[in-house]
Amino acid sequence: MTLKKLPYDLTVCKLTDIRDIDLNAEFFFIGKTDEELSLVCKTEDTPAHTTDRDDHWKGFRIEGVLDFSLIGILSRISCVLAAQKIGIFAVSTYNTDYILVKDENFARAVDALTEAGYIVV
Question: In which domain, by residue range, is 38 found?
Answer without folding.
Answer: 2-120
